[in-house]
Design goal:
26% of the residues lie in helices and 22% in strands. It is α+β, with helices and mostly antiparallel strands. Strands 1-6-7-5 form a 4-stranded antiparallel sheet. The protein has a 4-stranded antiparallel sheet with strand order 2-3-4-8, covered by helices on one side. A hairpin with a 4-residue loop joins strand 3 and strand 4.
Length: 264
Amino acid sequence: MPELPEVETVVRSIRPLVGRRIVSAEFRNLRVLRGGDPDRMSARLAGCRIAGVQRYGKFIVVSLGGGGYLMMHLGMTGRLLLGGLAGKHTHAIFTLDRGTLLYDDSRQFGSIELSEDFPRRVARLGPEPLEITFDEFADALKQRRTRIKSLLLNQTFLRGLGNIYADEALFRAGIHPLALTSRIRRDRIRKLHNAIIAVLTEAIAAGGSSISDYVDAEGRKGFFQVSHRVYQRTGEPCVVCRTPIRRVIVIQRSSHFCPRCQRR
């Protein structure tokens, strides 16, 4: 699933569309629409100007001139593509005054939603990982009583952080994914806060991680996957101590860690 760096990369690649006008919108699959009638949505969008494109966690929110929001979530295999030809997995076509924007999704786990007010699903999310201060992060963490990996994946705690970058940040901070939040010292919390920012910043600069079929809106793959130190490296030697990387399951998600560098 595209996480914060991948979604941020997509947002940056479609931000040049700000100021363009949506001539028409065609929706070919009701499964990806959230509570919307395709004909009504098409009529509502026709003639609207794109006023802004922002990322909120893993969501892409397009502000419409005169009011309203078009919100998209890429799910596991969703793509926004500038130009090109529609294919069998194209579920939405936005024809602009210059060019087109396609929404492709082979597994159809993504979503498109149109609302007049700022989407409540997005408003309920936690703070932005790249903006939260250390004190805010530490205070929020100490208020929870759970495993640290589980907390990092909770979108009401931080928005946008996912499995890949939680694993990578925990490794850099030297914290075991099953460590209890109540037992993590403040100095280690600071290391984790710094690691989250560093990992996300580096991944964005690298265009995200292309592990399966992720590409940005211009079809370019990311290359941060070559810098992964633990994620999906089960059995391979740790880049620091050469101990084989292990995998455990946390809230039904695989978590990768070094048993020597990351202790509870």
